[in-house]
Amino acid sequence: MCALSHLIAFFCVVQCSSFQILSSSSRHSSLQLRVDDTTETTLIKNVVHCGSRRSMIQETFHNLLVTANCGLVFAASAPRADAISSEEAQKSYDKYAATYDELDGGKVADSLGIEAARSKLLQQARGRTLEIGVGTGLNLQKYKFASSPTANDGVTSLTLLDISEGMMGEAKSKLANLDIPEFVDINFVRADATSELANKFEPESFDTIVDTFSLCVMGNIGAKQCLSQMSNVVKKETGRILLIENSRSSNSFIGAYQDLTAAPSATFGGKGCVSNQNVEKFIQDTAGLHIIKQEEFATGLFRSFICKCE
Asked: What range does the record give for the signal peptide (predicted)?
């Protein structure tokens, strides 16, 4: 999960000044803001100040243009946000593993509604469950485990998959503190979820597949590939795919800001996360996959999906 560093950067910019949004265009990735002479000067100074503290902000506002009629236009075209490679992801997350929870968990995540969204969604996991991108195990304590090996009231087995051994090591350490029934079989698997699920598991192996904030790290192409892989190993009709993912905001200003900063934020502190994905469309474009329910949080900066495969 990689949204928080991006959100913090956004709020830094917003707090630099007050302004009025005149128009926005996602097609041209531009925003027009109106400020008076005094505010305009303050805004430019504060943007420079924020930029000096964060390379990401400096990159974002590199092409700011001030018009003659005291308007401000974000005229930079949005750079393409490319995914990091599987090898880069492995090395990067091995490095972040020990301190990952400090950045992407805790009070900030809770204030954004992320923890509540996790709990609500993961309580719906049933039967044989596969979690993609288990990371440090932030989800583990939120699962509801079945009352017996044959009951359909919770998780009966849990397969935890990640590309980073370092992250899975942190997750393994969390298991010791959890009250998990002895009959629940737990396995860790190191694999690339964009290409190896169909090789690792038989078709329709799982009743539930869970992914929280991993698709963004895979990039747009990788995210689509991962969803296709999931659809191969989840049970048809009765199985469910449960997702919470970063996404492009439904707020036009925030969405345009994400478009402008997706590439630099992924590079500077975003751990490779492409934050402005259209996950809904990715799901719709995946053969046989259908959205049963969708919810958005924090103006759509992240969304949850319940999907089934036909």
From this structure: 1-18
Answer whether residue 264 is part of any domain: no
Which residues 6+ apart lie within 8 Å of 176 measured at CB? none
**pTM for the complete prediction?**
0.73
* Per-residue DSSP letter, 234: B
Strands 64-66 and 71-74: antiparallel
Q: Are residues 67 and 95 in the same domain?
A: no
What is the spatial distance between Cα 85 and Cα 30, in angstroms, rounded to a whole number? 29
17 and 65: one domain?
yes
CA distance 39 to 130: 52
Residue 284 DSSP class? H
Nearest to 93 by CA among 139, 138, 133, 54: 133
- Are the beta carbons of 163 and 280 closer than 8 angstroms? no
Q: What is the pLDDT of residues 216-234, one digit of tens each?
A: 888 889 999 999 999 999 9
Range of the domain at 212: 86-258+273-309
DSSP per-residue codes, 150-179: T-SSSEEEEEEEES-HHHHHHHHHHHTTS-
Burial class (CB in 10 A: 0-12, 13-18, 19+), 42: middle
Question: Band of the pLDDT at 14, cuts 50, 70, 90?
Answer: very low
